[in-house]
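INFO  loader      accepted 1 record
INFO  loader      residues=84
INFO  predictor   begin
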Amino acid sequence: MNTSRTAATFQSQAGVHRACLDGPGVDFDLHLQRWNGTAWTNVAQGTTSGADETLTYTGSAGYYRYRVHACSGSGDHTIGYDAP
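INFO  predictor   done
INFO  writer      dumping tokens
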């Protein structure tokens, strides 16, 4: 079963975004999305086959959000991130 959860939207200045996902031992993916004025688009992702993911992205000012996608399994997870 594939499921997705999206974190709250936040406004950020231009600069480097860093994030990590600590999952429960199943395959989770982490996506950073940016609002382009009409839709959310993926700008960075961590998509290994493991439960833990990291990403780094240098972007412009705007509205962002993180999306966690469970490729297999389910469970609690924690996201840590730094935004400019």
